[in-house]
Amino acid sequence: MRVFFYAKIVCYNISIMDLPMVLLLAAVVIIFHPFIFLWYGEHQKVKKLLQIAQLGLPQEGMVPADEVTKAVEAKQREIQAKELALNLANKRLDKLDTAKFEFVSVTTHQLRTPLSAIKWTFDMLAKGELGPVTDEQKMFAQKGYESTDRAIEIVNELLKIDSIQEGKDTRANYNFANVDLAELINSVLFLFANQVKARNIELIFNKPNTSLVAQVDPKRLHVVFENLLDNAVKYTKLGGRVTVTLSDAKLNSARSVAEVTVSDTGIGIPSGEQTKIFQRFFRSSNAVKLVTDGNGLGLAIVKDIVDNHQGEIWFESKENEGTTFHLTLPLQQAPLQINQS
Ligand code: ADP
């Protein structure tokens, strides 16, 4: 009913309109409708393209893409230039390092011979082998002998550190032999007898009933024990105690090793500085105050020698209480039973 009612209104409205106008309107619609559709379709397409383009266009506060690419390329060029400069600086440093060690090596080698000549001349003077000398002259000659000896020691230390740095002092250069470790340690302890007596330090050596024989380079191992003992005595105040213990405690483990500990009741190593102890030239703050003429090379040499023996070295220390250095050396043979008879 309602459809019929609307149709009636339309027909009534047309009837009151001008008929030619209606026909003209219909003709216009018929003729132009494809263009209208075409325009609408194209309009939609253009709208879409504009939206897509707008996504790529810089929005407010955004840097355009080509500018970003340019900035990235510029940074990459900058990084490459810096890398190049760093490589050049590294090469220059390497060259300087080599030159420095060559210099140290040449001078120390050249100094050793004349220093030895001076040392033995002082010795001959002091002993009166070059003619009679007064007591005062003898005393001065003796002082000259001792000072030259000390200078030779420094030169030798520099030579040792030079070889280590150059990687020349490798295992291949070592002269290994079967060595009774207790005997070797005893020979080192003997060197400290006067010093510990003068400083009222108690020196104890605990050794096992069996002799522990290890295949080591005796001269280099002598240097190891000398350095560890020198430090223990040097950094222990008057009336303290230094204990050396040799044991085969780890003999039943997979690896047969001898363990040596050098323990003291000395100044200790501050906990914050303990990681640097094996670094060349490092001296802890409290050691510098107590003993002014150390060089911080001894433990670096010790570590190198122990490594070359395929051993291990570590320590524990408490400031103002003392330090214990532990050292293990592989045992090549089963411990020999000491003949008790
Ligand atoms: P140096 O004794 O000539 O300084 P070392 O290389 O032998 O050089 O030792 C490095 C540093 O390690 C020492 O300066 C000292 O700070 C610390 N150190 C080594 N042994 C001991 C010890 N037994 N007690 C306390 N500090 C020690």
| Bound chemical compounds | adenosine-5'-diphosphate
Indicate the low-confidence ranges by residue numbers: 333-341
Distance between the termini: 140 Å
Derived structural class: alpha+beta
Features:
single chain, 341 residues, five-stranded mixed sheet
Can you walk through the features of this model?
Mean pLDDT is 82; it is low at 333-341. By secondary structure, the chain is of the alpha+beta class. A five-stranded mixed sheet has the order 2-4-5-7-6. It has a two-stranded antiparallel sheet with strand order 1-3. It is built from nine helices and seven strands. The protein has helices at residues 2-16, 19-56, 65-126, 135-166, 181-191, 193-198, 218-234, 285-290, 298-308; strands spanning 177-180, 202-206, 213-216, 241-247, 257-264, 312-318, 322-330. Helix content is 58%, strand content 13%. β6 and β7 form a beta hairpin.
